[in-house]
């Protein structure tokens, strides 16, 4: 019967068996101390018996051990207890030292990222790295829980598609039994069609982008949350829904995983249930007043403005999430509904200095949609679009939605420097392994 | 304020507004009856006023309506209530009849499947079709809930990989910035590496198979559940875990969605918490006794045997899920642990006449793994495998796992005839749209 590390202190005074990876070994005052790692953390073990110490000779970090011992209260040990009178059994010996640090925090400096990812399969055994991906798994759980509570149906839409849904952007192409297929950049068209079935749908799935850009920020495969909801009164409904989603999952994350976030040096979370919102023009003005830099000719927010307005909102309103409204129509795609005065029925959600999502209303009226497609040079009769326009011909309610990268959300929730640090095995123009 | 169909009977005697799609229209005894569909089902509306009836002239199924009316108790109506004194507001008019039946059950005969999928975006609005995908969404929810309860961490592994993980089988290839990439057939190597980090991991994600087979059963994109767990005593641990998972989610599905399953003509669920298990040799013998057909020379179970043994177990043991053990070593891949007497440390799970999963123990010892790779003609130093073998060199515990298709599980849970009926937008050798 195996006892796990987080359960050790419940067994003080009894003999238990723990199992895990040799994580650390040191000599102190004539005693040998080892740490064994299991799925919940570390167990500290004190070994006096020379025959037992001898079993570890030549064995390295990673060795799989089974250890029987007496549980003794020890406030300085992880979990408040440690094992004494240990009897070791070597399940799987490891004789080579790991090529990357398992016990001390790994460097995430940009010049060290290649090393981080080259040895990813081992570096993730570092407790600090593993915490990032436990948090990511929890975020996924919270998101789905919130969406189920709001009567969303989970869908799985195809990643092999005929033609690029959003046009323009770079796509991966492949030979599909003699035809050309592309890898889906997003489930945009499918999630909209599914509004016609379930009103409210979501998908969490990979999306693929063949961006010929080698900056440290571009990845060619991301995990996207996509949400779409029908019978809205306007894009404000979707904004409010996104606001509630983000507020709920982030406050829950900080409440349930405060210790892990602290140890990862995540910033304090500063959020109000309602996020402040300004138009682009207002943000330009506030920024100019605050910094003296004239940005009135910019169509979009500059990266520095995005940072500045989040800081400003944090100081003035106690909220580091901000909506930017009054976006220019020119940025919108054919499936977006046009607004008044050349502004889009849409808003950007900024969080901790960066845009993490856009919340537009879609064009749901068949004639207008077909007109906008043609104006954008998209053929409504093309194989990739025929079913899509047919859904509108046969009745679609007013609807809107949003998507955001789970990678990006994890990065910003923890306060990491690079989105790749929040991806288990990142893919970019130079990296297809491990 | 919108009232949803499932909430109508809570508002008897009051005036409410419902919104949805015109689903059916008929004249009966001088009155006009319409059904309006929303995300929970249908609302029956009685229209007397000629001006209101006139608003519907020329409008077809799919028209988006907003209807204000008085809620009257009516046991014969869906939800036990209907709307009277209706005032209609046409939100989005539809003037063309749908090309596929929305109101009556659609034919799933194999000769009609092409029509079903050609108009999928509309056919899914049929309530019977939609139920299949609500059930699918629920199965996903139950699976994750069971896995979270058992301390599994959700992972997202790359679908763009260097080389085919499992060798042999057909893969989709694509140009990846001048290099060759393949689409992942499974997360096999990644989930095993992640056992070294979290012990227990799962992923639900698309998997791609370029099988040059045009049978009605083959699809080129599936949604797979993949599970892997460490520190097992043997493959029996994994068998028991899969058994508990399948028992839990199916009994929960039948308990919570009995009505939907019944209306889809799903068979009764016949399961015991422990599934009967027999060796292949025993099944061959039982089958021969039962049918008179000699299968003693078959290496594997024949399709007819798979059906027969599930029926046999259902009759004799009250359980239509069966484990087949004692599988031949020859079927195993390089990452499987060899068993004794040429039988694999593995079992097949059969349910309702078909194999839905295989539960093997993996080879976790570095030297043995490398040896098995070489014997299988797989280069341990190749880019797609170097990280994998490194994880074993630095210590992996005894582990095992399984995967199964969410599509296949949904098909068998409901008792559909073809796996494609359980996929929103299926992909096969002839189909890349919608």
Rg of chain A (C-alpha, Å) = 26 Å
* CATH level-3 fold name of the largest domain in chain A: BirA Bifunctional Protein, domain 2
Question: How many individual domains of chain A?
Answer: 2
Structural class of the helix and strand makeup of chain A?
A: alpha+beta
Briefly, what CATH class of the largest domain in chain A? Alpha Beta
Task: Tell how many strands the DSSP assignment of chain A holds.
Answer: 16
Describe the structure.
The structure is a homodimer of 434-residue chains. Chain A has 434 residues and is α+β, with helices and mostly antiparallel strands. Chain A has two domains: 5-92, Beta Barrel (OB fold (Dihydrolipoamide Acetyltransferase, E2P)), CATH 2.40.50; 127-422, 2-Layer Sandwich (BirA Bifunctional Protein, domain 2). Chain A has twelve helices and 16 strands. Chain A has helices at 50-55, 113-118, 120-123, 127-149, 188-198, 235-256, 258-263, 280-291, 303-317, 366-375, 386-393, 406-414, and strands at residues 15-28, 31-38, 41-47, 64-73, 81-92, 153-154, 160-161, 173-176, 179-183, 200-208, 221-230, 277-279, 321-325, 348-351, 354-358, 399-405. In chain A, strands 1-2-3-5-4 form a five-stranded mixed beta barrel. Chain A has a four-stranded mixed beta sheet with strand order 6-10-11-16. In chain A, strand 14 and strand 15 (354-358) form a beta hairpin. In chain A, helix 4 (127-149) packs across helix 6 (235-256), helix 4 packs across helix 12 (406-414) and helix 5 packs parallel to helix 11 (386-393). The radius of gyration of chain A is 26 Å and the shape is elongated. The mean pLDDT of chain A is 94. Chains A and B meet through strand 1, helix 3, helix 4, strand 6 and strand 7 of A and strand 1, helix 3, helix 4, strand 6 and strand 7 of B.
């Amino acid at each position: 019967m195996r006892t796990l590390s987080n359960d050790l202190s419940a067994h003080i005074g009894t003999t238990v068996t723990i199992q895990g990876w040799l994580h650390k070994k040191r000599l102190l005052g004539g005693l040998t101390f080892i740490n064994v790692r299991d799925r919940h953390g570390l167990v500290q073990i004190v070994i006096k018996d020379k025959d037992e110490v001898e079993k570890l000779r030549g064995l390295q970090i990673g060795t799989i051990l089974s250890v029987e011992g007496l549980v003794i209260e020890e406030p300085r040990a992880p979990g408040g207890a440690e094992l004494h009178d240990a009897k070791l059994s070597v399940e799987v010996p490891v004789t080579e030292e790991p090529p990357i640090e398992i016990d001390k925090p790994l460097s995430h400096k940009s010049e060290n990222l290649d090393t981080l990812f080259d040895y990813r399969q081992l570096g993730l055994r570092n407790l600090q790295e593993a915490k990032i991906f436990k948090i990511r798994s929890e975020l996924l759980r919270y998101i789905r829980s919130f969406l189920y509570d709001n009567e969303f149906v989970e869908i799985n839409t195809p990643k092999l598609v005929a033609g690029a849904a959003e046009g323009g952007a770079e796509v991966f192409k492949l030979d599909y039994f003699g035809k050309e297929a592309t890898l889906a950049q997003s489930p945009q068209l499918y999630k909209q069609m599914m509004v016609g079935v379930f009103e409210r749908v979501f998908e969490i799935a990979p999306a693929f982008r063949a961006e010929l850009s080698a900056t440290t920020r571009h990845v060619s495969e991301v995990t996207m949350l996509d949400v779409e909801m029908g019978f809205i009164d306007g894009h404000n409904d979707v904004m409010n829904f996104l606001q509630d989603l983000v507020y709920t999952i982030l406050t829950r994350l900080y409440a349930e995983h405060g210790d892990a976030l602290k140890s990862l040096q995540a910033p304090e979370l500063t959020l109000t249930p309602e996020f402040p919102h300004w138009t682009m023009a207002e943000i330009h003005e506030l920024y100019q007043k605050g910094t003296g830099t004239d940005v009135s000719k910019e169509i979009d927010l500059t990266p520095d403005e995005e940072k500045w307005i989040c800081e400003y909102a944090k100081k003035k309103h106690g909220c580091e999430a901000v909506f930017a409204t009054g976006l220019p129509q020119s940025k919108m795609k054919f499936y977006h509904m046009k607004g008044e005065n050349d502004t889009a029925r849409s808003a950007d959600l900024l969080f901790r200095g960066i845009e993490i999502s856009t919340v537009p209303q879609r064009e749901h009226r068949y004639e207008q949609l077909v007109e906008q497609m043609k104006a954008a040079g998209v053929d409504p009769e093309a194989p990739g679009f025929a079913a899509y326009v047919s859904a509108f011909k046969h009745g679609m309610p007013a609807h809107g939605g949003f998507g955001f990268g789970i990678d990006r959300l994890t990065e910003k929730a923890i306060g990491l420097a690079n989105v790749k640090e929040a991806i288990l095995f990142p893919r970019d123009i130079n990296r297809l392994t491990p």
